[in-house]
Amino acid sequence: EVHLEESGGGLVQPGGSLTLSCAAAGFTFSTSAVKWFRQGPGPGLMWVSKINSDGHTAYADSVAGRFTLSRDNARNTVYLQMSRLKPEDSAEYFCAVGGINYWEYSSRGRGTQVTVSS
Question: How far, in whole angstroms, is CA 32 from its chain's centroid?
């Protein structure tokens, strides 16, 4: 059974940094792409980033240049480093796997809350 667990969320001031972790189990992590999504207070789910099994990454325009996604296959973990955070980055962030297109997934974690506020 696929299990994904996020951690690292919290309250941070605008302009600050935070690193989220996603620990995975129950599937072959090293050959799997992992995605991050976020759900803010408004409607709609937003795809944030993706890292392929070869380490290639992609980012939504709104976070490109500020967020960095990496993976540690030895620890079955991906890390989302977020910097220069803005209030509009406030959301519940969750990691996910599966799905054919970048905006799709078949399994997700429960999420971790990020709040950017002074």
Answer: 14
